[in-house]
Amino acid sequence: MKAVTFFLIGCIAIADSALAATNVKCVGNSGDLTQALSALSNSPDNIDADEIRIRTGTYFPPAGGWAGSVTTHHDLSIRGGYVNAGCTQQTMDASMTILDGNNASGVMTINTPGLPVSNIEVSGLTFQNGNASNAVESSAGGLKIGDPNPINAGKIIVERNIFRHNIAASNGFSRAVGGLLAATDGLPLIVRGNLFIDNTSANDSALDVESNNEIDVSNNTFSGNRSTDTTQPVRVAMGHFTFTGIKLSNNIFWNNTAGAGEFDLNFSGVFNGERAATLTNNDIQASTGTAAAEAGTLHVDPAFVGNGNFHLADSSPLINAGIDHPAGDLTDVDLDGSPRVVGSGVDLGAYESASSAAGPRIGAGFSGNWFDPTLGQDGHGFQIEVLPDNGMLVIWFVFNPAGTAQSWIYTQGSYDPEKSTVTLPAILETGGRFPPNFNSSTLTRTPWGLLTLTFADCSNGTATWASNPASAAAGYGDVSFPIRRLTSIAGTSCL
């Protein structure tokens, strides 16, 4: 029920961000991302920042996965969710930008040779289907940052990402982590607002964080992660190493254990001299070891919406159950891009509950025809069909930029039944003819941009169009306008 929020880049304020970037790369395909990472600056006197902005869509890496090196006081930020050709508009919904390892390699590695004093931020991305191994070094199926060669005096922030269905194979002596491995000697190391689901490795199946200084882990959701090496007496979904301390706040650990010796985390750590964890307001199903300090821990079913949806249901006891100023602080928005605090307090986990948000949940009652009620704009509009299994089909009956022909833009995808907004990928279909001369083999289906529909109530909303390079070049520029219901389908209702 929360709107996907678009920001003009000039208005973004990203907490704890590195130096303002002077070398910005806008990435629109897998080759662009490969090139941007390989071209990271390594000049010894270069102290500006690289920023890689990745446009929405699904990307598959080259053989061995994407890799780049951060060197010599050179900061780096990698951010997903950019929706237009110039990477000047951004959706904060992390599910819209997918880096898919295709079960062939780890998805991404950020190396740090020479122990640079560099800040690294990774945000707004989905890392999925990674399959990593390394004969000598550590590995991570989703994202690996700075191990070996941890970052000296530089900070790492990994926030608002999705890590799902990643695998890492152990070589028997180095770390192998299913989702995320991040290591630094700098201050701080922050992991916040991420979703870790269905990641697998011998141990540390979802996350491993290592630093000589403090580590802050907050508002993450861990579920369905599996540690598979049954020869180890203790194995965990989240591993850590620190001499200074690790602080965990507002996290959810649930359904990560399948048998004896498998836990969400080891409060004590695993090495002599390591500082134990300090915990505040976490929901933990199974743990081992002794915490340095612990307050507000819950051991309750989070009441996820279910069927792969890790939002909290309206009945969840974790709504408003967090602390609003955890170590490492909160992100401005949650994993969907909705406000991070709604109601009397922040929710536990990566998503803020929809129960306190305005706007109706999308359902069958939204099917029908919708138009732009603005004076003089009522000659174009949308046919919306809400489909089974949380699917939606939308056809925009509109015209080409020159006004010389009709242009029907098709969008189809899935929606979240707990939200009032949906973003769908668009297709422009050309090459057809009037029957009987129609021939499906002559059709061309061109990806054409993104359409976001946000409903204020059952009869009113907003349509936001974000072009991609193809549609922008053809003159289909970005636009946003109100929409109003024209017709409804008999037998349906909007709640």
**Arrangement of strands in the largest sheet:** 2-3-6-10-15-20-24-28-31-34
**Name of the CATH first level of the largest domain:** Mainly Beta
Please state the second-level CATH architecture of the largest domain: 3 Solenoid
Unreliable runs: 1-19
Structural class: mainly beta
Overall morphology: globular
Question: Which fold name corresponds to the CATH topology of the largest domain?
Answer: Pectate Lyase C-like
State the helix count.
2
User: Could you give the count of β-strands?
Assistant: 44
Q: What profile does the largest beta sheet have?
A: 10 strands, parallel
Can you characterise this structure?
This protein has 495 residues and is mostly beta strands. It folds into 2 domains: 6-312, Pectate Lyase C-like, CATH 2.160.20; 364-485. 3% of the residues lie in helices and 40% in strands. The protein is built from 2 helices and 44 strands. The protein has a 10-stranded parallel β-sheet with strand order 2-3-6-10-15-20-24-28-31-34, with helices on one face. The chain has an 8-stranded parallel β-sheet with strand order 4-8-11-16-21-25-29-32, with no helix packed on it. An 8-stranded parallel β-sheet has the order 5-9-14-19-23-27-30-33. The longest helix has 9 residues, at 30-38. It is globular, with a radius of gyration of 23 Å. The two termini are 12 Å apart.
